[in-house]
Amino acid sequence: GGQVVVRVAAYVSARAQLSVPARGRVEPGTRAHGDWGRAGRKRSEGAGEVEDEPPQVTTKEHDFGLGAPVSEAEKYQNTLQLEQEVRNQDRFISTLKLQIEDLKQTNHGLEEYVRKLLDSKEVVSSQVDDLTSHNEHLCKELIKIDQLAEQLEEEKNFVVDTANKELEEAKIELICQQNNIIVLEDTVKRLRSIILETEKAQNKSPSRLDSFVKTLEADRDYYKSEAQNLRKMMRSRSKSPRRPSPTSRGTNCDVELLKTTRDREELKCMLEKYERHLAEIQGNVKVLTSERDKTFLLYEQAQEEIARLRREMMKSCKSPKSTTAHAILRRVETERDVAFTDLRRMTTERDSLRERLKIAQETAFSEKAHLEQRIEELECTVHNVKKNHVCAVGYKLSMASPFPLSLWSEKKFFYFSKIVFISLKYLKLYISCELLLFHCLFPSKRCE
């Protein structure tokens, strides 16, 4: 019976050594205490290696060679204790296995979570790089916009300064031209008074001319009869010298007529030049309108680009760089609004200048029509003067009387031709003054 108990105890101890590594515990006083400890140490040192042969259980008495027998009650009690300890160790091992499985699952979940975190970290780092590059690109574009705004401000200031200078010069020239116009108006009034006096004299002259012609006809008849008598009496005598013909005065009249015709041609040339100048001004106005349309298109494109940049900046994350970009964008928007107000002001000024140009064109056309009418009237007067001169010369040649009719008609012709010549000169001066006034109003459209 004792040998059976010893064998059962050895089997239980071997089972415990196989199931639990380095955890064999035997109460002191048992025979298998030393062998159990040595088996546990071997298991811990061998890193989980299990021997094939079960260890032999011996007691201290066998080690020391005593060989004292043990009671059956103690053996039975030891076996019960060993079985209880084996059960406890099995329970503890099962709980440890469950904990190990739980820890493995948690470890696997943590590994997956770490992998996800690493992936998200890479994605976030790539997004951060993209956002930084995009932010740098936006900063460069904002710098370019600032440079363009500065250039626009410089150009605007230059244009305003030049416009102010030109306006001052135009004011000075306008004052001078107003003074010249006042002087010319005085001269025109005097010429009108002189022309009215001459017309009144022409209206009064026919009665005197009729009486004078009648007396001349009577004298002609008388002198014809006397001449016939003298011819009969003085056939053998030499011919008497004739009275010098007034050819010199006729040549002078022809010279004056040539001058008036030249002045008329010059006035026509000036009118043609003025028409060409107006055509060039209209072409420049068309060019300005096309440039205005192009600038409006460019402004709309810039406004759309700024709105797009603003939307992109609002979508981006809120960072110190984004706040600075927002501040820069607001400043650019304020400058954009200022530039838009300046553009509106310039468009209003352009419209006012266009209205002034239309008014100047209308006045120029009216002055042109008036001048053409005046030229036609002068041509008619010159034609009438030519006719009167031809009639007077023929009448003088047909008459042999020394009465001063021819002298009076020549004086009349010279006087009237001088008036016409002076009036043409003043008309030419008036047209030149109008052209100078137009150049002062529009100095940028000056042509040769």
Automatic annotation (TrEMBL):
It comes from the Eukaryota. Keywords: Coiled coil, Cytoplasm, Cytoskeleton. InterPro entries: Centriole_BasalBody_StrucProt. Residues 93-187, 257-319, 343-388 form a coiled coil. Residues 232-242 have a biased composition (Basic residues). Residues 25-46 have a biased composition (Basic and acidic residues). Residues 25-62, 231-252 are annotated as: Disordered. The keyword Transmembrane helix does not apply. One of its GO terms (cellular component) is centriole. The keyword Acetylation does not apply. It is found in: Cytoplasm, Cytoskeleton, Microtubule organizing center, Centrosome, Centriole. PANTHER family: CENTROSOMAL PROTEIN CEP135 (PTHR20544), TESTIS SPECIFIC 10 (PTHR20544:SF2). Belongs to the CEP135/TSGA10 family. This is Testis specific 10. It comes from Equus caballus (Horse).
